[in-house]
């Protein structure tokens, strides 16, 4: 039998030291919708606590002692006034579920969150995050990640470290592209990207479950390749290809990939032991590039580093969305011959947008 203490809706303004001492055997503590502004240092007494449920309080700060709750598996801090989190949160080594949603002032997460190696679910909707918290990508067990209603524009390449990720929800952000690195997440089932007004392309055959987009007027002076011109109903629109693609330059204008790219591909075929042995002899940036390819070729699944061939297609029966809104799919290929294979085998419900066939023959 679990020892549960239910004090939801009880008007509590604080937890006294005596309360903590007296209830140290409690395993589940429910404190929804009270008026707690913080937690006492004596919270460390609750060494048996598995579940701490604190939604809809007025908590703006947590004590470092929260890190003492070594058995904690579920922590719900949603709908509070948190401005920061203590680094000690990384010491909750058994935490499986962390809910921080609706803490509108929270704009930064401590790096130590990456230490939560058992974390399965992380929810942080309605925060004030301007960039994707990269440290989350160190939470290797993570299956479900919700960052809805923030202000995030790019997904970092470190996302590939989340090998167990099944659900990614980033609705209502400022995404302009979805990384091709998402293709490497073999367990991903659903990606929700509704209501990202600047998003209108995504990697080919990515399992995007919910799409919602709208046009934004792009700047005229934006990088020509980053924002590719496409024609849509006689109207020119600018398509953002995403930051991992745009680092390539204009690969479609070259008949074969750059020499540097080919060198990377040859080296990446060596065993990791050979690569490691080069670590001290190469400039750091070069070594990092060499050990973290940008994407895989859609056709042959070969690795791609800094140079590839971009194809843009569109579904002729768009699954999509409302009225005038259209979503494009971007394809990365390793070589011109893979581009040709891809185009020749293109399913009939897809139409080629870029490159025009003339350009590649
Ligand atoms: Zn290929």
TrEMBL record:
Which terms in the GO cellular component ontology are assigned?
cytoplasm
Is Transmembrane among this UniProt entry's keywords? no
PROSITE patterns, alphabetized:
LRR
Superkingdom field: Eukaryota
User: Could you tell me which Gene3D superfamilies the record lists for this protein?
Assistant: Ribonuclease Inhibitor
Q: Does the keyword Heme apply?
A: no
The family database entries (SMART domains) matched by this protein are listed as: LRR_TYP
Identify the keywords attached in UniProt to this record, alphabetized. Answer: Leucine-rich repeat, Repeat
**Name recorded for this polypeptide:** Leucine-rich repeat-containing protein 28
What organism is this sequence from? Lottia gigantea (Giant owl limpet)
């Amino acid at each position: 039998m679990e020892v549960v203490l239910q004090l939801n809706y009880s008007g509590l303004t604080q937890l006294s030291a005596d309360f903590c001492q007296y209830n140290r055997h409690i395993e589940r503590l429910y404190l929804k919708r009270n008026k707690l502004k913080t937690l006492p240092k004596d919270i460390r007494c609750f060494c048996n606590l598995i579940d701490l449920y604190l939604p809809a309080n007025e908590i703006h700060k947590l004590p470092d002692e929260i890190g003492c709750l070594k058995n904690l598996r579920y922590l719900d801090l949603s709908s509070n006034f948190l401005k920061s989190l203590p680094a000690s949160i990384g010491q909750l080594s058994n935490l499986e579920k962390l809910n921080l949603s609706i803490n509108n002032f929270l704009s930064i997460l401590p790096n130590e969150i990456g230490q939560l190696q058992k974390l399965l679910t992380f929810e942080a909707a309605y925060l004030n995050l301007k960039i994707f918290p990269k440290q989350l990508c160190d939470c290797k067990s993570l299956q479900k990640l919700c960052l809805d209603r923030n202000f995030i524009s790019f997904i970092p390449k470190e996302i590939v470290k989340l090998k167990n990720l099944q659900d990614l929800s980033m609705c209502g952000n400022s995404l302009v592209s979805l990384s091709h690195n998402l293709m490497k997440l073999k367990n991903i089932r659903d990606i929700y990207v509704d209501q990202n007004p600047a998003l209108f392309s995504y990697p080919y055959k990515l399992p995007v479950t919910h799409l919602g987009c709208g046009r934004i007027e792009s700047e005229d002076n934006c990088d020509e390749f980053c924002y590719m011109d496409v024609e849509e109903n006689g109207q020119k629109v600018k398509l953002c290809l995403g930051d991992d693609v745009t680092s390539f330059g204009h690969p479609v204008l070259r008949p074969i990939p750059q020499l540097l790219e080919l060198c990377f591909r040859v080296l990446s075929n060596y065993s990791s032991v050979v690569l490691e042995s080069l670590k001290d002899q190469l400039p750091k940036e070069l070594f990092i590039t060499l050990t973290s390819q940008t994407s895989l070729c859609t056709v042959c699944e070969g690795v791609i580093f800094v140079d590839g061939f971009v194809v843009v297609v569109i579904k002729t029966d768009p699954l999509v969305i409302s009225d005038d809104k259209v979503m494009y799919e971007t394809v990365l290929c390793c070589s011109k011959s893979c581009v040709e294979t891809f185009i020749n085998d293109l399913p009939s419900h897809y139409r080629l947008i870029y490159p025009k066939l003339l350009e590649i023959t």
